[in-house]
Amino acid sequence: MDIYEDARTVSRADLAAWLRQLAGQLETTGHLFYGAAGTIAVADQVRCELEVEQEGTDEFSVEIEFSWVSPRTAEAVEPSAGTGAARETETKTEAPDPAESSTAE
After folding, report:
1. Is 99 within the bounds of a domain?
2. Of 17, 55, 75, 103, whose CB has the highest number of CB atoms within 10 Å?
């Protein structure tokens, strides 16, 4: 389930500033802020993935993805039907692909 997505064309300098802003939020508050008033708490340990693709002779994309199990979800363990096993929910946050262009600004 997507919570938020933003795709736009920006300069390389603006992209670098946005990445620094995200890094600052993670370091100082442990949260990511998105949209007009959205926020999500990021766990102390996350799974990180960096993917670099060449999609044609002159088109490239970079995807940065990190995911984690919400501590609140892990505490509220629900048994699965008939197995007694715990079910955990994984939260994913993906940075917008700067190679994609959109008119939403």
Report:
1. no
2. 17
